[in-house]
Specification:
Strand 8 and strand 9 form a beta hairpin. With 385 residues, the chain is an alpha/beta fold. The longest helix has 17 residues. The chain has two domains: 220 residues, Spore Coat Polysaccharide Biosynthesis Protein SpsA, Chain A, CATH 3.90.550.10; 156 residues, 60s Ribosomal Protein L30, Chain: A (2-Layer Sandwich), CATH 3.30.1330. It catalyses: 2-C-methyl-D-erythritol 4-phosphate + CTP + H(+) = 4-CDP-2-C-methyl-D-erythritol + diphosphate; 4-CDP-2-C-methyl-D-erythritol 2-phosphate = 2-C-methyl-D-erythritol 2,4-cyclic diphosphate + CMP. This is Bifunctional enzyme IspD/IspF.
Length: 385
């Protein structure tokens, strides 16, 4: 018997503007969805997380890292939820919380209230009473008023006994606004649980700023989360050997020699990955990917960096900035620095403005000066989300 969380993130969210669907846009250094995901990973009552995605977003979802089941969504929200529920059928899951990925501010207290409410019945959902006056409008003018007595603003996550909500979705014809509608159509009783004003759904461009302010306020004032700022440093060296190119910060750079290493020997990405692990106090690359394990022979270093960023999200942090310095006489890094920043931004899932890549020489001193190899230094700052 266990409780699972389903996070629905397959929509396109065009009303929010931007070049990406809203759940993938940046919010304080991480995608909106990463904040939603981190909340459920940190919740002690949640044993399993299912993330429902659009097929085009599979690479972005993989970059989030961590233990999560990926399920492709359907043509509508309720179809997406049903796909996720069906993926859990036959498992030990007895309760499920269904959440919109575009609600990045769900609190641990709300998750706990919903899980507890399921002891009293088959369904529970958070809501906030409507306190503003309500108008009916026609042609841009007030056409009347509406009594607000007994009206609530619905939120997610919405919680259910698993078998009951699965049967309800299987029986529903489709087109439901949320899972409470599906549950009620099946005759399930849904208890209203106290919602949270901060638990907003990012819908319009201005919602990003509001969510960012709420996250900042939570860092400063919320008793659930204490301020925690981490810094980490990484250093790596690889010697030159035979070859016609080197990999540096995710970019294939033509050169008359290659770099020797157990993986692809991307010295910049290795230093950066170690800096992240260091900030988390989780060792280094060798701790997570032992060089004695043959499966990592020749592996792409982005595997290591994606894993490190996944650990950042799982631990409830965001990466606010990183700085990589490559130390070599040749190849010349300057012309490739922009491409390296862009490559790292794609792998790490953060905006390029938080990434610095630069280079220096050792004035022909030491092993780098003799062009025997390349060294790299990296530093990162993590902030608890």
């Amino acid at each position: 018997m266990s409780t699972a969380a389903i996070i629905v993130a397959a929509g396109r969210g065009t009303r929010a503007g931007g070049d990406l669907p809203k759940q993938w846009q940046d919010l304080r250094g991480q995608p909106v969805l990463a904040h939603s995901l981190a909340a459920f990973r940190a919740a002690p009552g949640i044993a399993r997380v299912v993330l429902v995605i659009h097929p085009d977003d599979r690479d972005r979802a993989a970059a989030l890292g961590g233990a999560v089941d990926l399920v492709e969504g359907g043509a509508s929200r309720d179809a997406s939820v049903r796909n996720a529920l069906e993926s859990l059928a036959g498992s030990d899951v007895t309760r499920v919380l269904i959440h919109d990925g575009a609600r990045p501010l769900v609190s641990q207290a709300l998750i706990a209230r919903l899980i507890a409410a399921l002891d009293q019945g088959p369904g529970a959902a958070p809501a906030v009473p409507v306190t503003d006056a309500l108008w009916r409008g026609e042609a841009g003018r007030v056409a009347g008023t509406q009594d607000r007595t007994g009206l609530f603003r619905a939120q997610t996550p919405q919680a259910f006994h698993f078998d009951a909500i699965l049967a309800a979705h299987r029986a529903h014809p489709g087109g439901a606004a949320d899972d409470v509608e599906v549950a009620r159509a099946a005759g399930l009783e849904v208890v209203i649980v106290e919602g949270d004003e901060d638990n907003l759904k990012v819908t319009y461009p201005g919602d990003f700023a509001r969510a960012a302010r709420s996250l900042k306020d939570r860092l400063l004032n919320d008793k659930e989360t204490a301020m925690d700022i981490r810094t980490g440093n990484g250093f790596d060296v690889h010697a030159f050997g035979p070859g016609d190119h080197v990999w540096l910060c995710g970019v294939r750079v033509p050169h008359h020699r290659g770099l020797i290493g157990h993986s692809d020997a991307d010295v910049g990405m290795h230093a950066l990955t170690d800096a992240i692990y260091g900030a988390l106090a989780e060792g280094d690359i060798g701790t997570h990917f032992p060089p004695s394990d043959p499966q990592w022979k020749g592996a792409a270093s982005e595997i290591f960096l994606r894993h490190a960023m996944g650990r950042v999200a799982e631990r409830g942090f965001v990466l606010t900035n990183c700085d990589v310095t490559l130390i070599c006489e040749r190849p010349k890094i300057g012309p490739m620095a922009a491409a390296m920043r862009e490559a790292l931004a794609g792998i790490m899932g953060i905006e390029i403005g938080r990434i610095s890549v630069k280079a220096t020489t050792s004035e022909k001193l030491g092993f780098t000066g003799r062009e025997e190899g390349i060294a790299s230094l990296a530093s990162v700052t993590l902030l608890q989300a």
